[in-house]
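Subject line: Sequence and fold of a protein, written as structure tokens
Body of memo: The sequence and its backbone structure tokens, given next.
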Amino acid sequence: MRISRSTAGTAFVGGALILTLTALAYPSMLGVENAASGQDRIIANTQWGPLTEADRDFVVRVRAAGLWEYPLGQMIKERSSSPEMQEVAKHLLVGHGRLDAGCRKVSTDLGITLPNEASPQQQQFVATAEGSTGKEFESTAVTIMRVAHGGIFPTIAKIRATTRNSLVRELADTTNDTVLDHITVLEKTGLINQEQVSFQITAPPKLPQEQTTPPPPQQGAPVRVLPVPEDLKDFQTVAPNPSYGQPQPAPSAG
């Protein structure tokens, strides 16, 4: 049976796509010994509250998402002419630009090392979309991102519900709002097959750790910046642009 390029692209999305922000084996890259049995191990006490392994990994995962979705947003802006896809590009670039600024601020305050490159799997997402053209490009890009965004909600909810660090909590709030904003504009393209997306979210394939883990930054390398484009500085989305860094108030004695 002959398989078209469009079918092949869909097959890749179904067979190789797992959640954008899968669990990352980053402790060794960060110089932290993974001696505890759970992600609730406290690795630092800060003025914003205790920092756990799960907190740290969440910040890294949000950063890693931007490292592939931001370039894909740039690609959509350059290659798609439809108003709906141009809207997607704007929301991706603004949303991940603002999230990235939050990640960099939080990582500096909490002493978290951030990657400068997406994971091999995430880089393949971009390469897959880049290798297609026209409507196939738009459909492939939208499907990959819709699955990725839809799958991250449980992680955000868990971090938001359990973290005792106010900086991480604020980042979780912003991430949740940004993800929902992106899902909304992706669905407005009319290119989403909801049944396919649901299946891919609930039955992701398992990949080797080295495929889902972003490489550590080179020693001494500056932190890569994902800037909000100058022409979109005033672009409004439903996601707020908070200022991180207010110390967490001490609990009252009463």
